[in-house]
Amino acid sequence: MSETEYVVLLDDFGNEIGTAPKASVHGTDTQLHLAFSCHVVNAAGEVLVTRRALHKKTWPGVWTNSFCGHPGPAEPVLSAVHRRAEFEVGLAVRDLELALPLFRYRAVDASGIVEHEICPVYVARTDAEPQPNPDEVAEYRWVDPLELAASLEATPWAFSPWLVLQAQQLHLFETPQAVRRAS
Any coiled-coil ranges, and where (predicted)? Predict the structure, then answer.
């Protein structure tokens, strides 16, 4: 990775309008930019959740999805997903499915730092055990998606706001009965 990581800035319609150093983008007046989230599922059907490292600038120490990241300028999003999977949780992922192509959110953490992203959401598979990067992940767990959904509903404050919002829209976190009713 380069010393300075850049993110892709977007207008309100999702069109690229430039780039900026990642460190300069996440503040109290965060400009809309491109990101992605990924939920990793193992052979047992469990989803990987990670607890953000305590020194992270935004939402330190909260539980979140498997990993997130930002595609660099001119980097295909799928390439960025694979890059961050390896860097953040030490995993090779496969069978990437674009589950929420238009996911977008804006959230403010307790310190006033804002996340403001258009953030396609992927679901991926792995047969391996994570080897988390301690600069990114404090701890991890494999959990049943329906149990996680119940926890997200009962204690949303313990999780990243993007995980809470994504889980409300992803079929991964629905009971079979809810999926049948929606069909």
Answer: none
